[in-house]
Amino acid sequence: MADRTAPNCHLRLEWVYGYRGHQCRNNLYYTAAKEIVYFVAGVGVVYNTREHKQKFYLGHNDDIISLALHPERVLVATGQVGKEPYICVWDSYTVQTVSILKDVHTHGIACLAFDLEGQCLVSVGLDSKNTICVWDWRRGKVLAAAPGHTDRIFDISWDLYQPSKLVSCGVKHIKFWSLCGNALTPKRGIFGKTGDLQTILCLACAKDEVTYSGALNGDIYVWKGINLMRTVQGAHGSGIFSMNACEEGFATGGRDGCVRLWDLNFKPITVIDLRETDQGYKGLSVRSVCWRGDHILVGTQDSEIFEVVVHDRNKPFLIMQGHCEGELWALAVHPTKPLAMTGSDDRSVRIWSLIDHALIARCNMEEPIRCAAVSTDGIHLALGMKDGSFTVLRVRDMTEVVHIKDRKEAIHELKYSPDGAHLAVGSNDNSVDIYGVVQRYKKVGECIGSNSFITHMDWSTDSKHLQTNDGSGRRLFYRMPSGKEVTNREELKLVQWASWTCVLGPEVNGIWPKYSDINDINSVDANFNNQVLVTADDYGLVKLLRYPCVKKGAKFKKYLGHSAHITNARWSHDYQWVITIGGADHSVFQWKFVPERKSKEALHIAPQETLADSNSEESDSDQSDVPEMDSEIEQETQLTYRRQVYKEDLPQLKEQSKEKHRATAMKKRERAPGSGVKLHFIHGYRGYDCRSNLFYTQTGEIVYHVAAVGVVYNRQQNTQRFYMGHDDDILCLAIHPLKDFVATGQVGRDSSIHIWDTETLKPMSVLKGSHQLGVCALDFSADGKRLASVGLDDNHTIVLWDWRKGEKLSAMRGSKDKIFVVKINPYLPDKLITAGVKHMKFWHKAGGGLIGRKGNMGKTETMMCAVYGWSEEMVFSGTCTGDICIWRDMFLMKTVKAHDGPVFSVHALEKGFVTGGKDGIVALWDDTFERCLKTYAIKRAVLAPGSKGLLLEDNPSIRAISLGHGHILVGTKNGEILEVDKSGPITLLVQGHMEGEVWGLATHPHLPLCATVSDDKTLRIWDLSPSHCMLAVRKLRKGGRCCCFSPDGKALAVGLNDGSFLIVNADTLEDLVSFHHRKDIISDIRFSPGAGKYLAVASGDTFVDIYNVMSSKRVGVCKGCLNYITHLDWDKRGKLLQVNTGAKEQFFFEAPRGKRQTIPATEVEKIDWSTWTCVLGTSVEGIWPVISEVSEVTAACLSNDRKVLATGDDLGYVKLFRYPVKGKYAKFKRYVAHSTHVTNVRWTHDDSLLVTVGGGDTCLMIWAHEPESHRELKQCDSEESDIESEDDGGYDSDVTRENEINYTIKALSTNMRPMTGVKPHLQLKEPSVDERQGVVRGSRPPVSRALPQPEKLQTNNVGKKKRPIEDLVLELVFGYRGNDCRNNVHYLNEGADIIYHTASVGIVLNLTTSCQSFYVEHSDDILCLTINQHPKFPNVVATGQAILVTCQPRLHLFTCGTL
Fold first, then answer.
1. What distance in Å separates the CA atoms of residue 572 and residue 1042, rounded to the nearest whole number?
2. Do 927 and 981 meet the contact criterion of CB atoms below 8 Å apart?
3. 1344 compared with 483, residue with greater pLDDT
4. Residue 374 scores a pLDDT above 70
5. Fewer beta carbons within 10 Å, N or C terminal of the chain?
């Protein structure tokens, strides 16, 4: 059986031929080290021309289309295309990422520019609004963003002489932007009569508000402020694509192939016409220029880079060439020399030297070329054309030998036979033609078995057979040279193939992912010597696999660089290199093949290699090469934590239900009860699916979590305090280094992280908005300022927070598989590690992103825990097989066997470590994991007498370990918290049920005890007195769902999930009697009141059986229910049973015979019930919530004084109602502590405590009942009800009216008055004729109310200039907006003025002169106004306007003195 791991050898990118000149501009610069930086496909290239070496930046995952150089000329910013494109800022010297900027743009990033200081970066998106965004790029934060223009923007630049000013240009516009606060405000450039309104392609800023821009017609437009001042006519013959400013002046490059140099005042210095030089050609078009000193770099449309020395400008050096625009498909390698031949739709065939990294020959053909092959002797080069012809050239001098056209469709593949006698030519006409080489390429055979186009072919070593692949996924064989199809497979058994480039066949099954289209792998080539295979696919990945790879979904190593589809891949003749070519990026990549290395050398990999050598994360094979997963971890990875309904959905659901309940809301509703409950104690600890969630606080208390509660437990007093801020399951907990704050993360649609104080139990910070479904891991940095979190979404997003500010610093997708742990490096807070299923990654922060690298470990193991060691590069992680892996940086140094089964927890000490595993052993280690110093086994025998319960089994699986106060704190999978004394004895502090739902709950008739039974197959008795401990436990054959004490408290009945039930002695839990009459689950069980003569047993089979306890016989069966039984209650006399079913039916049966009775509702209330735990009937009608369709009330219990009814529901709420609860939607008090459904609630015999159990959260919660008298209001008292009814004091009529005003309507409906004009003070001048035409051509958007931010209003200057239209100046405004606004009149200047607003104007009225002055920057009604009261900011006013349909609402700050 072939090895299914990824191969140990790898590829390293050595050279990229080409430069992206098409559809990009201004993307070629000199760095400070005089290297050249540019990009091609998805790779940033730094090219050292002196040493002829290239370095590569590989941080992008799609085509790069924009580039900017930092003013210090070391850092480079590049932007890419894609659905979620991002910007990388990287160092051109080390080619490592410095910062990642993401989550703002869509489609792509068209332009980038750094400001003068290099602190800010501006980017322009390719979205429909061409969004402009200004970044603080080091922090990865957006400072401002605004829609750029309705049409494409081609260039953007900072005004280097005026701070906070930018200029952008594009299709028929130029805009001048000012950055103020977080607002970018544009003003459109006014072309006037000086020049035509046309597309501006590039720009450069100069002193004194002068801007130079290059236009589509070859003119240069010179702007002063926002007005066009003059034009330089005919600077170029046609469009000016690039303009570059430097100390000496400006360089421009255009479509006419010229580069022009200008001085600082834009007077011409010289022209360099590249078309006229030796290397020039007709149609050369310049896309990028960069002028530095006496060197000029020029990038062309056809992927060439020229370097021009100014004093020898007629002899430019051609330093880089590539194919021009058009798909690149043809690739062949020379059989004996290090040469590669490529041919493209640009009709050129080129020969590249793989040693000199240079183009050595080029020949232009008549037709686009689609495939190529070199004859075995290396003399002939055959080229297949798109029109169905093929041409053979001599390699030596590129002269034509023959040109043959036998087909109409494109030739997609051709190959010479190994003996050199024949050439096979496969076409899209579904056939392969065979030509004799010696007979001057006479056709000698034809293969016509395919019914689709031919994609790949291979000859056998003896040249007697040919195999073909076609587009329909068929693999066929032919005899050569006749072309007869071979159908007898026996004949083929001994055939050896000379090459393997086919994508179909048993040897290459493994190249296909499990579910993929046959056409998405374009090329394959096998290296028989090293037994590896290289593939090229439609997703831009080059993959390296073992050859042969027989099973689908084999493991691979993958390499990014090409952005879109890779059309071909071939090994060089000596297998030193792999050549790959990109279709759309028409670039040629040369990869060095690095055979299997010894691991020692692997430690000295150059930085960019490790970046490129990304191991195959997405191998989709069944992990047969990974050891079997441990059952516990298997279970845990299956947990999804998804909810049908989240608590966040409630407001929306209530809103939807409101309509139908309007009528009810008008009625008087039952008020909430006077008494309340307060959480007193919780039995339970979440260990079954969480790890490392148990710590000592500063004061020696213990903090952990269970259900939706953070618990602080005092072990001396055996008391608990609670953090109740969460509303769903908490899944992780981390403690601040000072041990006073704790961070907890919960499940939720938009899940939140709370950081809270363990003393005051108050939240310090709540972080939301970054994780979906839940938060599964948290960690504080060593300085306590940062917090790392991991989400439960499909990508397990990792976020780094400044938690006090609530600011997200960085985020990145973590892994497709589950992540169990995140840890921040204690020495370098910018670094972190994550570990999880088949995953160990080392991350460092880069701006708004994180860059992760997989740990180098051979086969990928699942990691359960990880910690940093005694230095910044040492990491220790625990695996699922019981090993501890010791890492230095990202390299695995060695592994140490620590436990049998998974290592779930590891904790670092000052000197050494402590680990805990599934084997139930706690081990202490020295600081290098060389020696195990001591082990503690968690066994019942060593349980200390002061324990608060009983160990269920020896050696429980250990999930959390923490040290402090001379003890080791241990949390187990079974829900126990233990304290291990260093000398050996173990104290059990807290425990709850194990994994599985808890449903059964019964309180003792006269003692403070309760019993619970759970799906974890245990029956437990708990002490509810202050000693709070588990008194007894018994394992059962099956899980159980209900239990009940007999009226004398001596017996306990337990219903099991298999339809049987037993009665046990309540003290010893030993069996008294058991029965098995039903198949389905026993859902409720009850002794009759008084002497407890009868026992009623309800099952999921829709029956209630009645047994005589003394004679142990079944005496009656209640029949007639249509659905499973949910609740049972006896009346006081023990003669009548009340039954609820899952279909919300209420039935009554006579005991003991079980005859069904029909009792009218009015009579039911008169019956004296012994207990009330039912949820149906008129006396409890009000307990069902407004949204009862999604939330069932699962349990109810009436207090013994019959005043308060407690209920539990599916959303985890415990509610208290005043009994009887008549009428719908009664008011209540509501408490959140359980996470999902509360399965049962019971009052103790004296009503002093309420006991509740939660299904999935496995806990038993004890609530103290606080009667009305001595209750002060506490914060845990819930909102009182679901519907705000009108009788709660409705609105005053004015308030009601104002509440219903909608400010969007008038902008949406047809306007009363047309709004197409321009406000007078914004009409700067008459539009010129051209502009008018321009408007007609649709270049300007129709003017809406959302005008560009206007200039501040000038004072009245009517007389200064003759204008065609006199200006109107606002003089007086009558009116004040009081009808729907408040607090909007204020005194200013110590009472001399007042300020108020009306319409869209802010008005300052001087009380002595009665003069008004106005703020008119708003474009819609002002709705609110306030002034800054601080003495430092006198007269600063903020006003907010109504929303426009076309833009966001605006807030303006202005100073009244400067109106």
1. 74
2. no
3. 483
4. yes
5. N
CA–CA dist 56, 1100 (Å, integer): 67
Q: What's the pLDDT band for 28 if we cut at 50, 70, 90?
A: very high
Asked if residue 506 has a cis previous peptide bond (ω within 30° of 0), the answer is no
Distance CA 1130, CA 1136 (A): 6
pTM of the model: 0.76
How far apart, in whole angstroms, are the C-alpha atoms of residue 1206 and residue 490?
80
Tell how strand 702-706 and strand 1113-1118 pair up.
unpaired
Q: Give me the phi and psi of 1286, to 5 degrees please.
A: -65, -25
Q: Are 1452 and 1423 in contact (CB under 8 A)?
A: no
* Overall size of the chain counted in residues: 1459
Mean per-residue pLDDT, 1108-1116? 88
Overall average pLDDT of the 647-667 stretch: 65
At 1283 the three-state DSSP class reads coil
Query: In the prediction, which pLDDT does 253 show?
Result: 92
Average pLDDT over all residues of the chain: 84
Q: Where is average pLDDT lowest: 512-526, 919-933, 1338-1352?
A: 1338-1352
CB 183 within 8 A of CB 193: no
Q: How many CB atoms lie within 10 A of CB 91?
A: 16
* Whether the Cβ atoms of residue 1225 and residue 1283 lie closer than 8 Å to each other: yes
**How far is residue 178 from each of residues 68, 162, 848, 1348, measured CA to CA in Å?**
21, 10, 25, 12
C-alpha dist (Å) from residue 387 to 367, 374, 584, 918: 7, 20, 20, 68
Pick from 253, 292, 243: nearest CA to 113? 243
Cβ atoms of residues 302 and 314 within 8 Å: no
Rounded to whole angstroms, the maximal C-alpha distance in the chain is: 118
Q: Which residues contact 245 (CB under 8 A, 6 or more apart)?
A: 204, 205, 206
Among candidate residues 72, 24, 26, 20, the one with its CA nearest the CA of residue 250: 26
Sequence-separated contacts (24+) of 921-927 with Cβ below 8 Å: 921/955, 921/958, 922/958, 922/961, 922/968, 922/970, 922/980, 923/898, 923/899, 925/898, 927/869, 927/870
Among 93-107, 275-289, 1181-1195, 1379-1393, where is mean pLDDT lowest?
Answer: 1181-1195
Task: For the chain, give the percent of residues with pLDDT over 70.
Answer: 87
Using CA atoms, how far apart are residues 1206 and 582, in angstroms rounded to an integer? Answer: 69
Per the CB < 8 A criterion, the answer to whether 111 and 66 are in contact is yes
1117, 1073 in Cβ contact below 8 A?
Answer: no
Least confident of 190-199, 402-411, 626-635, 902-911: 626-635
Angle at 1412 between CA 1408 and CA 1415, to 5 degrees: 140
Asked if residue 1332 has pLDDT above 60, the reply is no
Residues 6+ apart with CB under 8 A from 971: 685, 687, 693, 694, 704, 958, 959, 960, 961, 977, 978
Q: How far is CA 1106 from CA 1085, 1126, 1153, in A?
A: 10, 16, 8
Cα separation, 288 vs 279, whole angstroms: 17
Q: For residue range 1207-1258, list pLDDT tens digits in order.
A: 998 888 899 998 888 888 888 888 888 887 899 999 999 889 999 998 778 8
On whether the CB atoms of residues 364 and 347 are closer than 8 A, the answer is yes
Please classify residue 1302 by burial: count the beta carbons closer than 10 Å to its beta carbon, then call 0-12 exposed, 13-18 middle and 19+ buried.
Answer: exposed
Count H helices and E strands in the chain, helices first. Answer: 8, 110
Q: Are 87 and 79 within 8 A, CB to CB? A: yes
- 1291, two tokens: 């609105």
Edge to edge, the sheet with strand 730-735 lists 730-735, 741-757, 763-780, 786-791, 798-802, 807-812
- Spatial CB neighbours of 880, under 8 Å, sequence gap ≥ 6: 627, 629, 630, 633, 861, 862, 863, 864, 902
| Nearest alpha-carbon partner for 191 in 1337, 1331, 1338, 1320 | 1331
